[in-house]
Amino acid sequence: MGTETVIFRGSPSLLTRFGSLFWAAALLIAGGSLAIYFSQPLYWILSAVGLIIAIAVVIKTRSIVYELTSERLRLRCGILTRRTDEMELYRVRDITLVEPFFLRMAGRGHIEITTMDPTNPRLTLEAIPRAAEVREQLRTSAEECRTRKGVRVTEFSEDSPATTPPPSAP
Predict the structure, then answer these.
(1) Among 33, 119, 142, 165, fewest CB within 10 Å belongs to which?
(2) What is the pLDDT of residue 60?
(3) For 139, which DSSP code?
(4) pLDDT digits (tens, 9 = 90+) for 34-69
(5) What distance lies between CA 49 and its chain's CA centroid?
(6) Alpha helices in the chain, H assignment, sequence order
(7) What 3-state DSSP class applies to 151?
(8) Strand 72-77's sheet: what is its strand order?
(9) DSSP of 76-141, one letter per residue?
(10) Which pLDDT does position 156 carry in this prediction?
(11) Do residues 59 and 48 lie in contact, with contact meaning Cβ atoms separated by under 8 Å?
């Protein structure tokens, strides 16, 4: 069996936290402006709160790391307590690429993954760069992983004869 290679490693874009950063910047600017104009220490506190919120949002967003390898997908998150979730690629069922307008303008997108993993049935990689390329690499790696492990995915539909109850006798 070959060695595991890293295909993609990245974090979500700060664009996904635009609202929080906007309000933090508004507090910072308003508090600083009012503190300078009125010379009141209370306004400096308002400005400091805006700065603390902005720093917390940036640190929290950067603490999320997605890592796609040839064998699995890892999601690491947390600042003080770090949590790592892993999902084997042969468990991937479906991959959807979502590119909202503003993220597409920044060259980013979301990848939504539906899996057969009981702990993570749906997983979203938020606002990652080159999302279409990463999606294709993920699809190719999942197929290769299934082939290497000899895994076959069988789908059953709701109206298949195996799941439809037999008609009742009159």
Answers:
(1) 165
(2) 94
(3) H
(4) 988 888 888 889 999 999 999 999 999 999 999 999
(5) 28
(6) 18-38, 41-62, 101-105, 131-149
(7) coil
(8) 6-10, 65-69, 72-77, 83-88
(9) EE-SSS-EEEEEEGGGEEEEEEE--HHHHHTTEEEEEEEES-SS-SEEEEEEEETHHHHHHHHHHH
(10) 66
(11) no
Do residues 145 and 69 touch, judged by C-beta distance below 8 A?
A: no
Distance, CA of 137 to CA of 73 (rounded, Å): 12
Tallying the residues shown for the chain, one arrives at 170
Distance CA 11, CA 15 (A): 11
Task: For residue 93, count CB atoms less than 10 angstroms from its CB and return exposed for 0-12, middle for 13-18, buried for 19 or more.
Answer: middle
How many C-beta atoms lie closer than 10 Å to residue 164's C-beta? 9
Distance in angstroms (rounded) separating the CA atoms of residues 131 and 110: 7
Eight-class DSSP state of 107: T
- Is the four-CA dihedral 15, 17, 23, 29 of positive or negative sign? negative
How far apart (Å, rounded) are the C-alpha atoms in residues 26 and 49? 11
Which token pair is 150?
């000899």
pLDDT at 163: 46
pLDDT of residue 168: 58
Do the beta carbons of residue 129 and residue 107 sit within 8 Å? yes
Residues of the chain with pLDDT under 70: 1-2, 155-170
**Residue type for position 54:** A
Distance, in Å, from the CA atom of 92 to the CA atom of 113, rounded to the nearest integer, reads: 7
